[in-house]
Amino acid sequence: MGKKEILLIRHGQGDHNRLFAEDRTEEALALRDPALNDVGIEQADTLGERLREQLRTFNLELIITSPMRRTLMTTDHVFGKHTSYPVIVSSIPTEMGHGECDYGSKKTQISKDFPHRDFSLIKNEKWWTDLETQEHLEKRVKDFKKFLNSRPESRIAVVSHGRFLTELVGIGQFCAFANCDCKQYTLTQDGTLTESGEIFIRVDNVWEKWQK
Questions:
Q1: Which end of the chain is less congested by CB atoms within 10 angstroms, N or C?
Q2: 138, 187 in Cβ contact below 8 A?
Q3: How many distinct helices (H) and strands (E) make up the chain?
Q4: One digit per residue, pLDDT tens: the chain, 212 residues?
Q5: Which residues, listed in sequence order, are joined to residue 88 by a DSSP beta bridge?
Q6: Which domains does the chain have, with CATH numbers?
């Protein structure tokens, strides 16, 4: 089906990000499925404002978001709670699970909290993986590329997480995306993902080491 243009967006700041930045790792890991904090909401709103003009020429066809509270909220604030773009909630691009902050809420709870989203692709109440291995993460990345290439849409936005996105784009560092970064990539049928450089938006110029 040819190449696809993909907008990769990392969620806005949650309190776990703030705690990681303050080297309060145990407290950060203990926060279960954290929401965006005030800074994260402002970041997502700002990204939405800056992205609006770009979307007029990008011709967006689909939004895919992970089922975590912070990505669902980011989607709402960037694109609008009742956006005209179709939205798919998928567990494939969720964060690498190794602490409470990366474990989601059960399907019945998160779908109740976000009733305007379609959770039909989420088949199980517990849809995340505890203590996920690197090998499992790599398999999810491959599965996600296949999923993107299986879609009929050619211009897709993905709202995901720092560790997953970094693995997806194949950059060997802790986190290649700051909170609410938006970068455009081209995906080919063989799974090659290349940064196009056409859209690059960074709403927060302060780079924090622990922006998980």
A1: N
A2: no
A3: 7, 6
A4: 589 999 999 999 999 999 999 999 999 999 999 999 999 999 999 999 999 999 989 999 999 999 999 999 999 999 999 888 999 999 999 999 889 999 999 999 999 999 999 999 999 999 999 999 999 999 999 999 999 999 999 999 999 999 999 999 998 766 889 999 999 999 999 999 999 989 999 997 654 443 43
A5: 64
A6: 7-59+68-189 (3.40.50.1240)
